[in-house]
């Protein structure tokens, strides 16, 4: 019933632009995650904010008929802007971009998120045409192998992380700042390793992928060697991967291989013309995100 209420036009703004949470420090947020991850996962109740009714024709909106069915496996989902969904498995995040019935998944969440994501594809009545991985960490690659097998969609990633994604090399340990170490030690044992996943297409700086009116690939090393961002110039939408996070405020992502390089990559992303920014961790920003990224970049130390 709640989902039906949310579908009313009067709730439209809430679905499109979610209220910002109280500003919390990155440490607070990560501690919150760390505590969560040391507990057995609660039975999650599916939460779904249905797309605004005014934006979706009834025949094209099967989610309104049964918004809960797709989410029994435990993935929350929000509409960020029309055609862009934010998926939140237990840890990690993913985004689904739609061009009509053609879907592109950006990251995949932890292992086991596949059934809920394929159920979502079915509910939306779309075909998954590609899976783009922003980098090789297990909270982003986790369900790539199962989704590739279930849908036949090719997996795209940068050469710098391909060996890790394919299970040919272990994930290199990040170079941790002192305050990051206890968080890393408490979080990582609770994020399951990803099953190796074949990469079907290596992507590199300057490539333009066939979705969103032309999706430009930016190579942004630092968090990992093969980290990428995706920028859709037509809709001014940016997917940052873990180079940038949004924990109440916009911050440099944690657990980087090379912090100085990650800072440089952050600054590069901040210069892009961006209205909507989607992060590897934290809530998307749906209005004038570029200004927030630039303000955050100005505060970064080298
Ligand atoms: Zn990462
Ligand atoms: Zn991550």
Structure in words:
- The chain has 302 residues and is of the alpha/beta class.
- It has a single domain, classed as Ribonuclease Z/Hydroxyacylglutathione hydrolase-like (Metallo-beta-lactamase, Chain A, 4-Layer Sandwich), CATH 3.60.15.
- The strands form 3 sheets. Strands 1-2-3-4-5-6-7 form a 7-stranded mixed sheet.
- A hairpin with a 4-residue loop joins β10 and β11.
- α3 runs parallel beside α9 and α5 packs across α7.
- The radius of gyration is 18 Å and the shape is globular.
- The site of one zinc ion has 4 residues, from loops.
Quick gist of this model?
Pfam families: Lactamase_B. Keywords: Hydrolase. 29% of the residues lie in helices and 20% in strands.
Question: Could you name the key traits of this structure?
Answer:
MBL fold metallo-hydrolase, binds zinc ion, NDM-1-like, seven-stranded mixed sheet, alpha/beta, Metallo-beta-lactamase, Chain A, 302 residues, RibonucZ/Hydroxyglut_hydro, 11 helices
The largest sheet, given as strand count, sense and whether it forms a barrel, is: 7 strands, mixed
| CATH topology annotation | Metallo-beta-lactamase, Chain A
Gyration radius, rounded: 18 Å
| Count of discrete structural domains | 1
CATH classification class: Alpha Beta
According to CATH, the homologous superfamily is: Ribonuclease Z/Hydroxyacylglutathione hydrolase-like
Bound molecules: zinc ion
How many DSSP helices? 11
| Poorly predicted runs | 1-27, 34-73
Please bin the fraction of helical residues: 25-40%
The second-level CATH architecture is 4-Layer Sandwich
Mean pLDDT rating = 82
Number of strands: 14
N- to C-terminal distance: 50 Å
How do the SSEs run, as a string of H and E? HHHHEEEEHEHHEHHEEEEEEEHEH
**Class per helix and strand makeup:** alpha/beta
How much of the sequence lies in strands comes to: 15-25%
* Strand neighbour order, sheet with most strands: 1-2-3-4-5-6-7
GO molecular function, one term: hydrolase activity
InterPro entries: Metallo-B-lactamas, NDM-1-like, RibonucZ/Hydroxyglut_hydro
Region (Disordered): 1-20
Protein name: MBL fold metallo-hydrolase
């Amino acid at each position: 019933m709640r989902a039906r209420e949310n579908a009313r036009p009067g709730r439209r703004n809430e679905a499109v632009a979610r209220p910002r949470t109280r500003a919390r420090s990155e440490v607070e947020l990560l501690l919150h995650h760390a505590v969560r991850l040391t507990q057995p996962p609660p039975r999650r109740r599916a939460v779904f904010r249905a797309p605004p009714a005014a934006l979706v024709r009834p025949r094209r909106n099967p989610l309104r008929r049964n918004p809960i069915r797709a989410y029994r496996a435990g993935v929350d989902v929000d509409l960020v802007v029309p055609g862009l969904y934010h998926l939140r498995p237990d840890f990690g995040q993913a985004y689904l971009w739609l061009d009509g019935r053609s879907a592109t998944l950006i990251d995949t969440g932890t292992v086991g998120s596949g059934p809920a994501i394929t159920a979502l594809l079915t509910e939306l009545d779309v075909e998954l045409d590609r899976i783009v991985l922003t980098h090789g960490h297990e909270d982003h690659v986790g369900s790539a192998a199962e989704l590739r097998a279930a849908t036949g969609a090719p997996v795209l990633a940068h050469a710098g992380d391909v060996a890790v994604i394919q299970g040919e090399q272990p994930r290199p340990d990040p170079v941790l700042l002192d305050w990051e170490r206890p968080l890393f030690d408490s979080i990582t044992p609770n994020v399951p390793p990803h099953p190796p996943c074949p990469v079907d297409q290596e992507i590199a700086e300057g490539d333009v992928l066939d979705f969103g009116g032309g999706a430009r690939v930016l190579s942004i090393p630092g968090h990992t060697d093969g980290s990428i961002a995706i920028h859709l110039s037509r809709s001014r939408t940016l997917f940052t991967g873990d180079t940038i996070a949004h924990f109440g405020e916009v911050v440099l992502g944690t657990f980087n291989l090379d912090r100085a390089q990650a800072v440089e990559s952050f600054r590069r992303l901040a210069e892009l013309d961006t209205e909507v920014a989607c992060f590897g961790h934290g809530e998307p920003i749906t209005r004038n995100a570029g200004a927030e990224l630039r303000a955050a970049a100005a505060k970064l130390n080298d």
